[in-house]
Specification:
alpha+beta, Thrombin, subunit H, 6-stranded antiparallel beta barrel, 12 strands, 27% strand, elongated
């Protein structure tokens, strides 16, 4: 019994001394200092590592800054290049238009009739009619059946008037020489606008002849891109590549205006006439302005 009491007092004394020691350490703050030092020692990098990390970070920031600057400069240069290309295209278009108008003026000085320019302002495409709209009408002195022509650049300007080789395929808008070509005639006229019936329309016909042989016939529209030269004599002198012009008959178109070129020679029904498929001089799809013959 006495031994148990002694062990109990000893345990209490040990607990008391332990608590007192801990209280003493916390009071002096040494455990805090020891823990902090140990933490810094274990986790903090060396000065060399810190210096290298800072140096690499600076290089990365400088590279990023240079990259951003280069991208901005590249964007500015690209915008400038685009602007210069657009200005170049506008200048080329202006020069081309100036040359074309100069050629038209020179041509007008040599013609025995007056030409008035008109802008193409619309189209009336349909299955039954091929026509375009121009910005001139009754107020400008133009009425029904007034002839309309257009300037067309030739595909063989070095040798004007020379027919192409028979093996060379003719194309719309690819004539042998520069000059005015037939577009059509005014079919309806309003105060300040007119409808022009194109020569390709199936309702269009005009007197024509072969420039080389002077053989006469009639050009008729087919409703397609080609024309039909008909009513030629069975023995008419006609070859592929021959230039077809207006004959002056019919009192609408003056003589000598280019219509197109012979693409294929045909035989009429029963051999009573000779015919030909003709490629029109004017490329209707490219027309922006036309000339009205007064």
């Amino acid at each position: 019994m006495l031994l148990k009491e002694k062990h109990k007092l000893l345990r209490l004394l040990i607990i008391y001394l332990s608590i007192s020691f801990l209280l003493l350490i916390f009071r002096t703050g040494r455990i805090v200092k020891v823990g902090r030092a140990l933490f810094l020692y274990l986790l903090a990098p060396s000065p060399r590592i810190v210096s290298k990390l800072l140096s690499e970070t600076g290089r990365i920031e400088e590279s990023i800054s240079q990259l951003v600057s280069a991208r901005e400069e590249n964007k500015i240069l690209q915008e400038r290049i685009t602007s210069l290309l657009q200005e170049k295209e506008k200048l080329q278009e202006t020069i081309s238009e100036s040359k074309r108008l100069k050629r038209i003026l020179n041509y007008q000085e040599e013609t025995p009739y007056e030409l008035v320019s008109a802008r193409v302002v619309g189209w009336t495409p349909s299955l039954f009619s091929s026509a375009l709209l121009i910005d001139k009408g009754i107020n400008q002195g133009f009425e029904k059946d007034t002839p309309v022509v257009a300037w067309q650049e030739g595909g063989n300007s070095q040798n004007p008037g020379v027919a192409p080789m028979k093996s060379e395929r003719l194309e719309v808008g690819n004539p042998q020489e520069n000059g005015m070509a037939v577009v059509g005639r005014i079919s309806e006229s309003g105060p300040d606008m007119s409808k022009v019936l194109l020569i390709t329309d199936s309702n269009s016909e005009l007197a024509a002849m072969v420039q080389r042989s002077r053989e006469k016939g009639v050009i008729a529209g087919t409703g397609e891109r080609s024309l039909l030269l008909k009513y030629l004599s069975p023995t008419a002198d006609l070859e592929i590549g021959d230039l077809i012009i207006t004959s002056g008959m019919g009192r609408i178109f003056p003589a000598g205006l280019v219509i197109g070129s012979v693409e294929e020679v045909l035989r009429g029904v029963g051999g009573l006439e000779k015919r030909a498929r003709v490629v029109p001089r004017v490329n209707i799809n490219q027309l922006e302005d036309v000339q009205i013959i007064e």
